[in-house]
Design brief:
This protein is mainly alpha-helical and 445 residues long. 75% of the residues lie in helices and 0% in strands.
Length: 445
């Protein structure tokens, strides 16, 4: 029994540290967005007015982060999820971290290539400029990052008892969220290139720790019986009730990444629209820091609530209500002053900190033969939704600007997008099964 406890403890530790590195690397670009793009796009920024320069940086930020990186997460989630159900949870953990670690190490070295030099051939591949390399590596990093959380949560969920499963996955989520705070500290004292190199090296070091982790017994049992259709993504589309359950699993968490991907990462743009200008203008880096301080507390509280209430659904509904309140505070109280803005952002982090319960619920909703696929694709579909929220925000912004709302159009557009996100998420909770304390030893029909 002691050996079993040691094995479970090691698996939880490795999954937690893996998610730590996952969040560290996932947020690196958001933290160094302006600094890195100002250097990479320096020739394009020469002679531009401040407003035009900010618009160019915003365009490239949305493209690299909200579109390319999240699209990599989407496609990677599908590939790693299928592999998790067919080849095993551990192989995905090793493979995914290797991909995104190498991508981030290379990201530290991007540079414009001399067309007449030894590496001039890179122009024929479309990666001769630093910005082109940035695009490719953000997509590849997103692809690699997609496998970390789902495989880790699936592994932990399958080896921990039904009664303690929520505590274990909460530990994984809370430790992971602390990775954002570590990334903030790193990018504060290190250059953006050094920060990318550190993130990549952290992942490579983590590979050695995973050597002693055992594969999930439920997966080995399923593999031993040669389960047909394991990891077949198309099975999620039929019958209709399974598709509905999958969509509801995804929809419950979309406000989390709307808040992070729009309200927090673009706090400078929205804050200016709210009237916080000059020295009162919010910093995206500081907003991310305070948001993730709140998220760490929120993930701990939501996970504990799901255990104390003996219900995943009630915990999610409670935190969705808090999210709606926090968003309202963001657009009202947040406009009072810069300290109040950061305080509201921290509260927004606490309110949207039900990611731990969401990830646990995603793993619990489906059988062993599809669990890895769902637990990996669902979080990455939620992350990918930031691309849609970004486009919706821009579209609403254009409409409100045309309507004569001036500078207020930006924050009004973000508020309208927030309403859409909440209207999607809250009803979705009622399409899920209650999974607290249920056995995971089952397969889909």
């Amino acid at each position: 029994m002691r050996t079993g406890r040691n094995a479970i403890g090691l698996a939880v530790l490795v999954a937690a540290l893996g998610y730590f590195v996952d969040i560290f690397d996932l947020l690196l670009f958001a933290l160094v967005r302006k600094e890195s793009l100002q250097e990479v796009l320096a020739p394009d920024l020469v002679g531009l007015a401040p407003d035009a320069a900010d618009a160019l940086l915003k365009h490239w930020g949305l493209w690299l982060d909200n579109t390319l990186q999240t699209t990599g997460l989407l496609l990677g989630g599908l590939v790693w999820g299928v592999l998790a159900d067919r080849k095993g949870r551990l192989k995905v953990l090793f493979g995914s971290i290797l991909v995104y670690s190498i991508a981030n190490v290379l990201n530290a070295a991007i540079a414009d290539i001399d067309p007449n030099g030894a590496y001039g051939w890179m122009y024929s591949l479309g990666v001769g400029r630093a910005i082109d390399q940035y695009e490719v590596l953000r997509f590849v990093a997103g692809f690699g990052l997609a496998g970390e959380l789902g495989a880790g949560i699936t592994l932990v969920s399958e080896i921990v008892s039904e009664q303690r499963r929520g505590y274990a996955t909460t530990i994984v989520a809370v430790v992971g969220i602390v990775g954002a705070i570590a990334a903030y500290v790193t990018t504060t004292y290190c250059s953006w290139r050094t920060s990318f190199a550190i993130g990549g090296c952290l992942g490579l070091c983590l590979l050695f720790l995973r050597i002693g982790v055992a594969e999930s017994g439920l997966f080995r049992e399923m593999a031993g019986h040669q389960a047909l259709g394991a990891g077949a993504f198309w099975r999620l589309f039929s019958p209709p009730r399974r598709l509905l359950r999958y969509l509801c699993t995804v929809f419950i968490a979309v406000p989390i990444w709307f808040a992070v991907g729009v309200l927090v990462k673009y706090a400078d743009v929205i804050g200016t629209s709210l009237g916080l200008q000059g020295v009162e203008k919010p910093s995206p880096k500081n907003a991310i820091f305070w948001c993730y301080v709140g998220l760490a507390a929120g993930d701990l509280l939501s996970g504990l609530c799901s255990q104390w209430m003996r219900s995943r659904k009630k915990s999610i509904l409670l935190f969705q209500l808090l999210t709606a309140i926090a968003i309202a505070c963001y657009f009202t109280l947040g406009a009072i002053s810069l300290p109040m803005f950061y305080a509201v952002v921290c509260f927004l982090g606490v309110a949207t900190g039900y990611w731990a319960v969401f990830a646990t619920t995603a793993a619990e909703q489906f059988g062993t033969d599809l669990r890895g696929t769902v637990a990996t694709t669902a979080p990455n579909l939620v992350r990918w939704s930031t691309a849609g929220w970004g486009m919706m925000w821009v579209a609403f912004d254009g409409a409100f600007t045309a309507g004569g709302f001036g500078e207020r159009a930006t924050w009004m557009a973000a508020a309208a997008t927030a309403v859409v996100a909440m209207l999607i998420a809250v009803p979705a909770v009622f399409g899920l099964r209650e999974t607290y304390g249920t056995s995971l030893k089952f397969k889909e029909e």
